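Lecture 7 notes: from sequence to structure.
We start with the chain below.
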Amino acid sequence: MKKVKKNIEIEILTGLHIGAGNDSIQIGGVDSSVIKDPVTSLPYIPGSSLKGKIRCLLETEGNYNPLHDTINEYFGATSDYIKIKKEDKNYSQKPTKLIFRDLFLSDEDKTKFLTGDINTEFKTEIVIDRRKGTAKDGGLRTIERVPPSVKFVGEILIRYDDGELENILKVLEEGVKLLNNDYLGGSGSRGYGAVKVTLK
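Predicted structure tokens for the same chain:
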């Protein structure tokens, strides 16, 4: 099995929120903060978030059945897929072809965050009481977002056998194209998470 790396860059076009999963909320605090590196306290994009989104888009918009061999070999076999394959005596589970590394701030944007030239933004939202047409009690929430223009960089490791690389890249590029026409993270229907993804 051979390996090749593809560099990936994600430029944020509209505020990005990939949540950290707050265990508790302080009065007057942020209801949903963005995930941050525990060492640097800087925002990052988990490889799992990117991989899961691209896989989902390929399955829902790219005409790849969730139980299809291609999706499961490239992105990892699901439990449902493995159950079906148990009946196939010729099947043996192989290492996942695509490995998505976490994406971290570009060097330029990392410096801007550390010097305070860029900060995360806080967006306050409300829930409307449909009967009264006013803000619902307890419906106020504050969401932390990574602001537009920030860039994240990372790597995708591709494991392949002879004759496979071209098709793996084709599927990956199709997924990236779909993501560029969708959103990453949460609240995409409310304008969050438009991104420009570039493979290099």
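Points to note: Residues 2-23+36-119+147-199 form a domain with the Alpha-Beta Plaits fold (CATH 3.30.70). The mean pLDDT is 90.
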